[in-house]
Specification:
Elements lengths: L6 E2 L5 H12 L6 E11 L2 E10 L1 H6 L1 H17 L3 E5 L2 E8 L2 H12 L21 E11 L2 E11 L5 E2 L5 E3 L5 E8 L4 E3 L10 E2 L3 E6 L4 E11 L1 H33 L1
Parallel strand pairs: 1-8, 2-10
Antiparallel strand pairs: 2-3, 3-5, 4-5, 6-7, 7-14, 8-9, 10-13, 11-14, 12-13
Length: 262
């Protein structure tokens, strides 16, 4: 289990912190809404989707820093082969993946980026309005026609608490941040039920939705099945060969039997 990290105030973050404090003092919630989705369309096709919405309370008070942060997210997505769509203070991100390993790599690289060097660093790259210290693991087992997948997501949101240089808690934005994670698959999906795991707030046969809890470690596990195109194709070829062999030699055998009786 990862140790929780504490965020200390640096000059680029002060405007964001003041805006969050203003939201808290005025009893306004939803300064930041962050929806993250992992959508499987098949064994070798899917996408990581994100929808980030910054509330007016935050952007009106610290427009420049909010713009820099959204710009940083756009660059991360583009570096991973993704696409972004910007509309005001809303940002939609789509990052495609082609396998379980590709999903894990891109997800972890996006949410745990390497610190850029001074030569390549862009404005806002070191700024994080939300520190989502998360790690995703996905293990797969092939059963010829279908593939069984076990997903585990660990998201340590303890770093959302803002600590001053003296070590005092200045603001805990748990009530100000709404973070949702969803998993969608073409076939059946189920979540595991253990005391340490976060239960979903919505569940259907093909989608699970969790609301992450700021200020604590969130653990998510789910099992789902995907059709295997290679396995299905191999079975189809075998059946086609067997059918062709039976049709060819079965018919010729019947003709030989008829001719022998005549």
């Amino acid at each position: 289990m990862k140790a929780r990290q504490q965020t200390r105030i640096t000059p680029p973050k002060r405007a964001i912190l003041v805006a969050l404090a203003l939201c808290l003092l005025t009893f306004l919630t939803g300064c930041v809404r962050y929806d993250v989705g992992v959508n499987f369309q098949g064994q070798y096709r899917g996408a990581i989707t994100q929808q980030i919405i910054l509330g007016k309370q935050l952007t009106n008070f610290s427009q420049t820093e909010a713009e820099r942060w959204l710009g940083s997210l756009e660059r991360r997505a583009q570096n991973l082969g993704g696409k972004t769509q910007r509309s005001g203070q809303e940002l939609a991100v789509t990052i495609p993946f082609s396998s379980a390993q590709d999903l894990s790599d891109k997800f972890n690289r996006f949410f745990n980026p390497d610190v850029p060097t001074s030569q390549t660093q862009q404005p806002g790259d070191s700024l994080e309005v939300l520190q989502l210290n998360s790690h995703l693991d996905l293990t797969s087992n092939n059963f010829l026609l279908f593939e069984r997948n076990h997903l585990h997501l660990s998201a340590d949101l303890g770093a959302l608490g803002v600590i001053s240089e003296q070590g005092n808690l200045l603001i805990s934005p748990g009530a100000l941040v709404d973070i949702v994670f969803s998993l969608s698959t073409p076939l059946s999906i189920k979540t595991l039920s253990y005391p340490q795991l976060l239960p979903p707030i919505q569940a259907s046969s093909r989608q699970l939705v969790w609301k992450l809890q700021p200020g604590q470690l969130n653990e998510i596990e789910a099992i789902f099945w995907l059709p295997s195109p290679i396995g299905i194709g191999a079975i189809a070829i075998i059946l086609l060969v067997v059918f062709g062999y039976t049709f060819k030699y079965g018919v010729s055998g019947e003709k030989d039997a008829v001719e022998s009786t005549v």
